[in-house]
Write a structure and sequence with these properties.
By secondary structure, the chain is an alpha/beta fold. It has 13 helices and 15 strands. The strands form 3 sheets. The chain has a 7-stranded mixed sheet with strand order 10-11-9-12-15-13-14, with helices on both faces. A 4-stranded antiparallel sheet has the order 1-2-8-7. A 4-stranded antiparallel sheet has the order 3-4-6-5, with helices on one face.
């Protein structure tokens, strides 16, 4: 009886202490999952560095990760419920105490992946991070991603009707395409995407695994394999290559080249960007603005040229600065617009701004400070330095010096956008500022960074959270783009 009473008291003490006190070594602060077609990121944040090893299994595809010096706790078990059913890469995850000092994670994968496992030291609000980036073994081609985006005409958020008496004025010589006009590119997209819509499929992916696995069943026997999820098989139609730029035939007036605008919603995933006084994250307001602008561009023309948009990210996940540039260049973008929301220590600062690249220093101290802050996004979002050093195209995109012609065209685009933004709200600066923004370093694409407003200003933060203001900003950027092309038509 005495031994039983001691065991009961010990159990009660264990419950009172809780998992963090019982865990050996590091304590888990949070676990996060960021799914995307590009890759899925899993982050385990801890108060001390974690040491992990991993291995992959091909059939069925799995990733097993062993983390040393841990006891399984409630925070780590939350990872199971954070895998979404629509994750393109992870079907489910199992967590178990593999040995007394090792926690094993097994990720059941929807497709073959090339995982990158690395650690990050504390930065900004984060402590130590153990990161798993699950890249598909056959990554989506940027041109196929463009085709997939162009086939999503009615994507969210919906475009609200303009307020009565406040229509968006079309630019001189430019008009929005009407329903009865012939758009050969749109017809080709519709034909190609319709080939791969299977009748009778609901498109609902299977639910992720919800049980926490024991050590006995965690690395040997996988769960029953679900039916293939056709809705996340690839970013674009399998086996289809999009047409070359300018190759879409037209029955009226010969071939028409599309004008492609790369829209870059700033930050994302582990990188929240600036935060407003009410807790609004920059990444969460710039993405809907980008989606509104995407839908407007895809429904518009510049003279006889169809306008089309390509997003560097369509969801809440981290994209390194150089990768944003590389994506825009891979699809042959004609313009690059990076969308942000500014922040400053003084909450009274307000208004929008537009920035272009400078090769010889910033146009003001404020521009220099902002460029330095924005260029820290990779440190906060977290990049695998070892993998980046093996990707020469990313290095070249950063090191290429932009041409004088690119900067000149960027300034023209910036002025066109500022004129329209001035009709929507206050401007912080009425001229285009210049600084060394890493994301503007595409040497062959006119590129600007738009600070839509100061999210650090309580009034502007409230406006940035509303669909009405986001829509008006998108309207202004659309007209600015159309006015730029009207004054600077493409050569071919």
């Amino acid at each position: 009886m005495q031994r039983r009473e001691l065991l009961k008291k010990g159990s009660s003490l264990a419950l009172l202490l809780g998992a963090p006190q019982l865990a050996q070594g590091a304590g888990i602060i949070a676990v996060r999952v960021w799914p995307a077609q590009d890759y899925t990121r899993v982050t385990i944040e801890s108060d001390a560095p974690l040491k992990a090893s991993h291995r992959t299994v091909e059939d069925p595809p799995r990733l097993a990760v062993d983390i040393d010096g841990l006891k399984l706790d409630a925070a780590l078990q939350q990872l199971v419920g954070k895998v979404r059913s629509d994750d393109p890469n992870i079907a489910g995850v199992r967590v178990g105490q593999y040995t007394p000092d090792v926690v094993r994670l097994v990720f059941d994968l929807k497709r073959a992946t090339e995982p990158q496992v690395f650690t990050l030291t504390p930065v900004a609000a984060y402590k130590y991070r153990l990161v798993f980036d699950l890249y598909p073994a056959n990554p989506p081609d940027p041109m196929e991603m463009l085709l997939a985006q162009l086939g999503q005409g009615g994507a969210q958020p919906p475009i609200p009707a303009p307020p009565p008496g406040q229509p968006t004025p079309p630019a001189t010589g430019v008009h929005v395409a009407q329903a009865d006009e012939h758009d050969p590119l749109a017809e080709l997209i519709a034909r190609q995407t319709s080939k791969y819509r299977e009748p009778g499929t609901s498109g609902a992916p299977g639910a992720p695994s919800t049980a926490v696995a024991s050590a006995d069943g965690i690395g040997i026997k996988p769960p029953p394999r679900p039916e293939p999820d056709r809705t996340v098989a690839s970013a674009g139609a399998p086996g289809i290559r999009p047409p070359a730029r300018g190759s879409a035939p037209s029955s009226r007036g010969g071939p028409r080249r599309m004008l492609l605008v790369a829209i870059d919603p700033g930050h994302g995933g582990e990188d929240p960007g600036a935060t407003g006084p009410a807790g609004t994250n920059e990444k969460n307001v710039v993405l809907p603005i980008a989606l509104y602008l995407r839908d407007r561009l895809n429904a518009s023309t510049a003279g006889r040229y169809p306008l089309r948009a390509f997003l560097t990210r369509e969801a809440d996940y981290f994209v390194p600065l150089n990768t944003r540039v590389h994506k825009a260049r891979s699809v042959g973008a004609d313009l690059f617009i990076s969308i942000h929301a500014d922040a400053f220590t003084n909450p009274g600062a307000r208004g929008g701004s537009v920035f272009a690249l400078s090769e010889r220093g910033a146009s003001s101290n404020a521009a220099r400070w902002l460029a330095q802050k924005e260029n820290q996004a990779d440190a906060v979002g977290g990049i695998n330095i070892a993998a980046a050093s093996r990707a020469p195209h990313l290095q070249r995109a950063l090191l290429d010096m932009s041409t004088a012609a690119q900067i000149t065209d960027s300034l023209k685009l910036g002025h066109a956008l500022l004129r329209e933004m001035d009709k929507v709200g206050h401007l912080h600066k009425k001229q285009v500022e210049r600084a060394g923004f890493a994301v503007l370093r595409a040497p062959d694409i006119p590129s600007v960074l738009v600070e839509t407003a100061f999210i650090s200003n309580p009034e502007e933060e409230r406006k940035l959270r509303t669909a009405a203001y986001q829509s008006r900003l998108a309207d202004a950027l659309l007209v600015g783009v159309r006015n730029y092309f009207a004054a600077n038509p493409p050569l071919a």
